[in-house]
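In this supplementary section we document a worked example of the pipeline. Step one takes a protein sequence of length 560 as its only input; no multiple sequence alignment statistics are reported here. Step two produces a three-dimensional model, which step three serialises into structure tokens for compact storage. The input and output of this example are shown verbatim.
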Amino acid sequence: MSITKSQTEKIGAIFNGNRFVIPTYQRKYSWTDTERKALWQDIEESLKDNMNHFVGTLSFKENKSIGLSTDTVYEIIDGQQRITTLFILLKNLIDKIEDSKVRESQLSAFIGSKENLKLQPLGADGDFLKRLLFDFDNIDQESINKRSQRFMYSASKLFSAFANPLKSSEIEARIIFIRDRIEVLVFNVENQAQAVKMFSIINDRGLPLRILDKTKSILMLYSTLHLKEELNNQVNNSFEKIFDSYDDLLVSKEKLGILGRLEENTIFTQHYYSASKLFPSTWNNRDGADTIFDNLKTRCEELKENPADLKTFIEEYLVDFENFAVNYSNLVKEIETNSLYQKPFRYLEFTATLYPVIVRLYMQCKLDELLPILETIEVRVYKLRGTNPIADMYWLSSHISAFDLSVDDIRNHLKNFCEKFVNNHVFRTYLDNPIYGNGAVKYILSEFSEHNYNLNTYKDFQVEHVFSKNPNYDALSYGFADDYDYEKNRFGNLGLLEKGLNIGLGNLPPINKVNGYLESKNSEIRNLAGEIQKGNFNKISVDKRRNIILEYCINRFTLN
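The serialised model returned by step three reads:
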């Protein structure tokens, strides 16, 4: 069946006699169980209420058929998440049909064969979809390292589980419903220009396209309308790598437990903050994703009457964004295996503000040499002081990107930044104050012990009050005055102890904690147990220990 330019269609009619490809530049499959369960529930409710179900708008571009195939081939411009989900759902339902002849006829009409699927993502996801649909039981779930493929695998598992308890008549009813009663509004565009114009319209109408999709589409639009499609392939190829890099970042984020609230906007904005040279008239370090996208459109509008300048800008933006995204992904993958990166990235955890600088330094192979001073900045400024200065850091990331600075030049910039916000005097003052609850304390105490704990051990540590937070004894008898609430939270009275041991010790006096301390993997707290056991451990002892920790910090997190 040929799809006309604009019409409401049933899913069954769309798949019957047509084949669809998902280009490599499109977003990878990213629907989660939340969206999939919602779709299943919509189908169940519509069946119950005897109503058709409308799933939205789809946009296709017709491609020329290959060879003697009688099917029409369409490129999916918009709607591939819904199409892919329905395709996997249909396959799982059809697999439950008991009559083999009926099952094969349904597969032939709506799914195709392993060699010739009705829906074909291009690239590695296409090969995986074939295995998923026709060789599911032989897929090793643990070996799936692409986020999009993990989502497809989860979709098949979910729909198989939902379909499993259904009777034959119930399976048939759902296949018929999907085929005949799920409706979509279809737009069939004739060429690439119409395709990107469609994206532009969707963007302007406020439909929920994500920031990377919108960015790709606007660059495609200007390439198509003002550069005679000259950069279309480059836009497609660059964004394929950007999409893959972002998906890889999400996999690494989940695996390593770092990167906090990383999302599409994060990688998009962090690139912009480190690329002021590309936006000379509009760049601002406080711009959000929507403003940055508007700046991109503004820059294209400024240059569209001069195609050579427009081409140069788009090329430079694509190359820089692609390199930034790919290196970002490579850096985070390397964190797992590079021993130099373990502590600052996984134990201390850099603030997001530092990542534009970190990624640019990684791109220039300068990160390893500058990692110690970046660690110092994180401890002093972002963790201990608890402030988040962005202007200087984003300026520096752009400066690093624009100029070939030496490692010493960059180190001096970083040193000046740290001295501006937390010089040695300020550092000592913060360290000397009540510090319990500060984000730097656990890392400082871990480093103070001078032992390389594995990550699980480090995560199990809690910050322990040597003289208890809520003592069941008289703290005044140990030399403390009425300011105990102040003194108990200073460094000399804090140590690292495993969670289980810490809970077990409760609010006991130090002498009654010795046996618990001796069981710890933390050598520093074990040594402290020996000092307590020796006798006369009191406020003077705590003050002495605090001064030792302070001197250690000044030397360990130094600017020299």
